[in-house]
Amino acid sequence: MKQSIPIQRIIIWIFLLGALVFIMAPMIFMISASFMPASDIVKMPYRWIPRGIHSENFVKAVAGNDGTYIFIRNLLNSLIVASVVSFTTVLISSLTGYSLSKFSYRGRDLLFLMIMATMMIPFEAIMIPLYMVVTKLGLQNSYQGLILPFLVNAFGVFMMRQYLITFPDEFIDAARVDGMSEFAIYRSIILPNTGPAIATLAILAFRSQWDNLLWPLLVAQTEQMKTIPLYIVKFTAEMHTDEGAMMAVNLLASIPMFVLFFALSKYFVSGAAVYSSRKG
Amino acid sequence: MSRQKKSSLKHHQDRWGMLFVLPALLFFSLFNFYPIFNALFTSLFRKKVLSLKPPMFIGLENYTYLLTSADFWNSIRATAVFTLGTFVPLLIVSLLLAVFISQVKRGRKFLQLAYYSPAVLSSVVAAAIWLLIFDPRGLANQWVNAILMTPGVDHNWFSNSCMVQFATMLVYFWKYVGYFIIIFIAGIASIPVTLYEAARIDGSGNWQSFWKITLPLLRPTVVLVSIMSMLQCLKTFSTQYLFTQSGAPQGPINVITMNIYNTGIRDHRIGRASAMSIILFVIMLFFTWLQFKTTKSDEVTY
């Protein structure tokens, strides 16, 4: 292998490290500021290493500005909504993807086309009518209301179908010869053999709900039913003079995603990369 | 092949297949198809959510109102400025960094994960962090002053209408650049190494290889990423919402989604908000169509 010119290497590394500083600095800022008293955060120049650990920021973050500890309930709400959504998304998407790839009933391709067409409908364009549907069903301020519109997504169906198209038919036929029921085939052959696709899809669904601000903003009117993004908005608007507590809230709200990220970074990355190999 | 023999067994299987698709079909009908037709229908009425008066059919009046409303055009402008100002730098920088990362041997994995890490944060958290950075006494001023050597200048990130727009773009850029880097790296990895080796034997340098091999073969990914990021930018909401809730002026960053939310939920004007939703839908539909059209004609053969 020919060694490339050192100057070029150096320029590349300058760019890469510069970008690294730009990207990491705000993250490190969040972490270090959450351990500082407010007076240190706005001190010029900024001290990146906190003097001692000011854990009262975290106490304030969890207790809230009125001491109601609603943070814990809101965190729980987010966990519930995100978990249920990623569970149902995986379940229904794989079932639908299986049906659309391995059976040949009439109208199958039309169904697939119809489901794909929904990918073109942005959530933001239907949130008002969706809100009216949920209101009519009497589901504002409920987990059902928060969850229902996201039970399954078209991209999940698409991904599962693409994944299963390459799955060999012989396994399925063999199971049929053995007298397995169609549902048992799905449960004990299809599901266990789609691991990477399931993991990717579960992460995408979980993260999109953890991040969801707009829909809970419409549906969750009481403090009890709010989710973490709403808590952060409220806390930020009310406590913007207490910078340390603000960053502590953000850090706490990010921990579940970071745990997931480090445990499953392989799938996170492949979840993003799915897009570049979408053809075929 | 499957059509020639339709034994009763096959029939039985296919009935199961239809059953499996039923939950999804029901879901998409109720939560996607019905709402979009409902939005279309509602956009033709004067309807207020809490009013007891029956909705009044007014034809296209909501649309003509919007198209002559300075506030709505401001939202279109805010969204267009945000989208253009975000996706062009995103595209160029992420492509450049992806090419650079693919060139290095050591530390590649670490850099990828580090660049990607902001994408793991939720958008609200990202906006909240930058809210503090843009504080008059915050890091943004310190950095900019250090680079421009203008000590003590406050760059008014929130009080100046240009700066507040720029601030929202910066948040979005920061959060998503790593995400697009990963997509580009996957695209670059799918280009056969033999092409580069052949080019090297022919005496072309790295720079030439980039223009002659990487960029042309990466075109489908470039098109995909640009339209994907465009569609994402058109839907931006969290950053703008958190900023305005925390005191930033609304006018310069009143993007369409925020306008829909405020019109429909705060002002209860469901008809007008629906008309706005339909306009947003049509704009995004156009870009999606563009994506399908361009990616289809862009099949690459090695």
From TrEMBL, chain A:
<feature type="domain" description="ABC transmembrane type-1">
    <location>
        <begin position="75"/>
        <end position="264"/>
    </location>
</feature>
<comment type="similarity">
    <text>Belongs to the binding-protein-dependent transport system permease family.</text>
</comment>
<keyword id="KW-1003">Cell membrane</keyword>
<dbReference type="InterPro" id="IPR035906">
    <property type="entry name" value="MetI-like_sf"/>
</dbReference>
<dbReference type="GO" id="GO:0055085">
    <property type="term" value="P:transmembrane transport"/>
</dbReference>
<keyword id="KW-0812">Transmembrane</keyword>
<dbReference type="Pfam" id="PF00528">
    <property type="entry name" value="BPD_transp_1"/>
</dbReference>
<feature type="transmembrane region" description="Helical">
    <location>
        <begin position="12"/>
        <end position="36"/>
    </location>
</feature>
<keyword id="KW-0813">Transport</keyword>
<keyword id="KW-0472">Membrane</keyword>
<protein>
    <recommendedName>
        <fullName>sn-glycerol-3-phosphate transport system permease protein UgpE</fullName>
    </recommendedName>
</protein>
<keyword id="KW-1133">Transmembrane helix</keyword>
<feature type="transmembrane region" description="Helical">
    <location>
        <begin position="110"/>
        <end position="134"/>
    </location>
</feature>
<feature type="transmembrane region" description="Helical">
    <location>
        <begin position="75"/>
        <end position="98"/>
    </location>
</feature>
<feature type="transmembrane region" description="Helical">
    <location>
        <begin position="245"/>
        <end position="269"/>
    </location>
</feature>
<feature type="transmembrane region" description="Helical">
    <location>
        <begin position="185"/>
        <end position="206"/>
    </location>
</feature>
<dbReference type="InterPro" id="IPR000515">
    <property type="entry name" value="MetI-like"/>
</dbReference>
<feature type="transmembrane region" description="Helical">
    <location>
        <begin position="146"/>
        <end position="164"/>
    </location>
</feature>
<dbReference type="GO" id="GO:0005886">
    <property type="term" value="C:plasma membrane"/>
</dbReference>
TrEMBL record, chain B:
<protein>
    <submittedName>
        <fullName>ABC transporter permease</fullName>
    </submittedName>
</protein>
<dbReference type="Pfam" id="PF00528">
    <property type="entry name" value="BPD_transp_1"/>
</dbReference>
<dbReference type="GO" id="GO:0005886">
    <property type="term" value="C:plasma membrane"/>
</dbReference>
<comment type="similarity">
    <text>Belongs to the binding-protein-dependent transport system permease family.</text>
</comment>
<dbReference type="InterPro" id="IPR000515">
    <property type="entry name" value="MetI-like"/>
</dbReference>
<feature type="transmembrane region" description="Helical">
    <location>
        <begin position="113"/>
        <end position="133"/>
    </location>
</feature>
<keyword id="KW-1003">Cell membrane</keyword>
<dbReference type="InterPro" id="IPR050809">
    <property type="entry name" value="UgpAE/MalFG_permease"/>
</dbReference>
<keyword id="KW-0472">Membrane</keyword>
<feature type="transmembrane region" description="Helical">
    <location>
        <begin position="16"/>
        <end position="37"/>
    </location>
</feature>
<feature type="transmembrane region" description="Helical">
    <location>
        <begin position="76"/>
        <end position="101"/>
    </location>
</feature>
<dbReference type="GO" id="GO:0055085">
    <property type="term" value="P:transmembrane transport"/>
</dbReference>
<feature type="transmembrane region" description="Helical">
    <location>
        <begin position="270"/>
        <end position="290"/>
    </location>
</feature>
<feature type="transmembrane region" description="Helical">
    <location>
        <begin position="176"/>
        <end position="196"/>
    </location>
</feature>
<keyword id="KW-0812">Transmembrane</keyword>
<keyword id="KW-1133">Transmembrane helix</keyword>
<keyword id="KW-0813">Transport</keyword>
<feature type="domain" description="ABC transmembrane type-1">
    <location>
        <begin position="76"/>
        <end position="291"/>
    </location>
</feature>
<dbReference type="InterPro" id="IPR035906">
    <property type="entry name" value="MetI-like_sf"/>
</dbReference>
